[in-house]
Amino acid sequence: MHQCHAEFLNLIASSLASSLSSSETDETPQMMVIQEHHVESCLRQLNIDTSCITMPTTNNNKKAPSATKRRKKKTSKVVTAEMMAEQERLLSSSAQRLQSLHHQQKTASLLPTQQPDVEK
Fold it and tell me: Where is there biased composition of kind Polar residues (predicted)?
């Protein structure tokens, strides 16, 4: 697999992960893992090699917030169906772009390598 293709996949993976983590929701690390697996399974459905993707890991070493902080946090937004639908839409559009890029790369690699004209 070409290096730029792996970098492109990593860029998509990290931007998806950062958009998921930067939303103002009260997401648990478990929720993030589920969403990361969803991204990877979508890429696998497109027959794209996910072994080169390094999903950014969430920092699970943080101390649990105190009871008072936890009580305050209950006012934060929950993940709504609309937000999930929006993420699904973003993911599918990213997947389509990735699939077309992957297809272009495949067809380019199938073309015979053109030798430069040395005779001139």
Answer: 106-120
Task: Identify the bridge partners of residue 25 per DSSP, sorted by sequence position.
Answer: 77
Give pTM, 2 decimals: 0.28
- Would you list the DSSP string of 1-68? --HHHHHHHHHHHHHHHHHHHHSSB---HHHHHHHHHHHHHHHHHTT---TT--PPPP-TTSPPPPHH
Q: What is the pLDDT of residue 50?
A: 58
With contact defined as beta carbons under 8 Å apart, do 50 and 44 qualify?
Answer: yes
Residue for token pair 């993030």 = 32
On the question of pLDDT at 67 being above 60, the answer is no
In this structure, how many other beta carbons lie within 10 angstroms of the beta carbon of residue 98?
A: 18
pLDDT bracket for residue 91 (50, 70, 90) = very high
